[in-house]
Amino acid sequence: MKRSASLLALITASGLTHALSGQVNDGSGHPVSGANTEVVGSKLKAKTNAQGRFTLDTGDQHVDELHIDAPGYSHETLRIVDDDEALQITLRRTAIEQIDVTATPFHSSIMESAQPVTVVAGDELRRKQAATLGETLKNEVGVHSSYFGPVASSPIIRGLNGPRVLITQNGLDVSDASRVGPDHVVATEASTAEQIEILRGPATLFYGSGAIGGVVNVVDDRVPSNSEAKGAFNVGHNTVADEYEASAAYTGGTDHFAFHIDGFWRDGDDYDIPGIAVNETEEEHEEEGHEEHVDGTLENSASESEGFNIGGSWLLDNGFVGISYGRLERLNGVPGHSHAHDEEHEEHEGEDEHEDEHEDEHEHEHGEGGVLSDLEQDRWQLISELSLDTPLLRGIHTRLGYTDYEHAEVENGEVGTVFRNETLQARVDLLLQEIAGWHGALSFEGKSSDFEATGEEAFTPPSRTDSVAIALMQEKHVGKLLWQIGARVEQVTIEADPIEWEEHHAEEGEEAEHTMLHFDEMEFTPFSLSAGLVWDFAHDYNAALSLTHAERAPSAAELFSYGPHIGTGSFEVGALFWLHEGEHPHFHYSDDVDEEVSNNIDLSLRKHSGNLSWVVNVFYNQVDNFYYQRNSGLTSEDFEGHDHGEDDHEEHEEHEDHAHDHGGLPVYVFEQADATLYGLEAQLAWQFDPAWTLKIWGDSIRGKLDDGGNLPRIPPVRVGSQLRYQSYGWEAELGATHYAEQGKVAELETSSDAYTLVDAEVAYTFAADRGDLTVYLKGANLTDEEARVHSSFLKDKAPLPGRGFSIGLRGQF
């Protein structure tokens, strides 16, 4: 893949100016036009012309490596040494699209990285776009969806999610509440994204301990790096939710200034489903009655969202400096929570000040009595990328972000809980000059998050998390080998407000006392080490090995939670509270917790060129002190003081029938135990005809506790295939994905049945000199299969949508 070439073209136009030039051809000797050529470690780049030729004005800049890529071809990285001949470069065709990753300081793609990565971009991203990030990425190898109904789904990477999978926007934390609970939507939008990057496995070197399970980086052009005029739009409608959507984006400018603007809008009703939402036994059906279960509709799954981004950049000779502002609003139902109004409750609607602010919004067509999530986010970003030519540095990349996030959980028109997250983050990557063949980056990062949940059902107290980190990442080419190494150390400080607490004494029969429980400030110092190797052992083939030792500080929610979580319908207890079981179960407070420690190995084998291309990954992840939620088998009614120790609620006595009185909720306790996760990932693409491509892929994940038993909500084995036709403007695709039965379940967890989803798409593109216009028709779940996602908290309440069709128009210019 990455190979050395002892070729250098130094064309001297004058005694002072130098240039690097060459010719790019395909395997048949035909020129490749539009190929990107870039000096590795700088912003110096150029495209090949119609004859496949390029010229890079390097000036006095020292050139070590040149990277070349083009759509439909395998990437090449050439090592440059002194030579007087022009570069002659041959690109080999590939059936698997390769796109560069921006999420790391290394120049890498799916076939060039020691760590498994996936990039979804361009038309492929447009075809896969869904209302949530999790549903957009759910068919990527190694990635599943948490699927909290169709309204709030986030990515699961190799069986891990929540605080272990970091979601970023242009390299900065999205800073929402989605890492706290699966019912909270990820505050980012795929419809206006340029590409989405997935780093599978530990990515702590680049992003810190919150990325111990992987990273999903959503890349858009809100801070433009150039003023090249480009635009895109999409309008569409789907039948499964009677949903309408529209999005548009434009970037333009002058030689010295670039600007960008984008926006989207989406509005849909409750989703159609095959049959009845609640998956209940015959006995439960007879006991509960059937009157509340609507056949063919997932109640309270309607949503509406809108947002925009605007940004501008100053374009310099050696890079750019830019700033952007983004606004996101979303109102959606929370499936699995439908309660009828009662007359007494209706008399008290509108009393809450926050409720008044949103009163008009709550008149959306979500039915009465449902739980709603009302989200608002303001986000500022400053991004700068500058090339330098100093003895120590070849560049500096700076990213600064400020996010103000809020969402309210509203039930029967009253605000029950409000979540707020205010985050300030800064990251500086110093790109280092090559020393003894090694080049890479020294990274500094600081982040401060002020998270607050207030209201009747705030299951975690307000908390503040501060972290600072330093990391060093380096890589080196040695013949057919690429070495990648790195280290990172950070300091994480977490503090939380006190809570009212019911203190139990050791002497039996002695009454518990209510007191204020004050938490000590908690400090953690996680560190990570990584070593990777990519070996081009044969023509068109390479192998990759990645070894990572990564540590993670627990999140505030994993430590301090103690209360009812309305969205998941559970009573959550943090790891600082130890469960004493027996005739009178209760909790003790203890601060005896540790960092989570992961030792991960990834092995990949790849065929990256030719009409038949494939990738196979195997991974093994041994995790000590793994934080997981155990179903205790108890309910909140088994404990006294589960309302944070408040010993009376006289002010709420008139609300005895208040909809927030959910009765006994199942108690889930965060505990630590040693665990092992391992699995297999594979994908193959065969272009057996210029117009036809067959893709086959699959993955398997196994998650076990070392002392016996299974980890909860581990996705099942699955296999997928797509047959695609593309010729003369026509595109058509037929795909099927089979999910196997999941019977390897945790204690008190139910198994899930197998199912197969069949999808299809047909599209036609009208090509023009100034852009393309595509008309498309898509069908999803064509067999109207009842499918329940095992990794979802709502698998027995919210099946996947039924048969649906989408029609739309998208264009780019």
Helix content: under 10%
Whole-Å distance between the termini?
Answer: 33 Å
What name is given to the CATH topology of the largest domain?
A: Maltoporin, Chain A
Which class of secondary structure composition applies to the elements?
mainly beta
CATH superfamily of the largest domain: TonB-dependent receptor, beta-barrel domain
Write down the domain tally.
Answer: 2
Strand content: over 45%
Which geometry do the CA atoms define?
globular
Mean pLDDT across all amino acids: 86
CATH architecture of the largest domain: Beta Barrel
Stretches with pLDDT under 50, minimum 5 residues: 1-16, 281-292, 339-365, 641-660
Overall radius of gyration: 27 Å
CATH class type of the largest domain: Mainly Beta
Summed up, the helix count is 7
Query: Largest sheet, if any?
Result: 22 strands, antiparallel, barrel
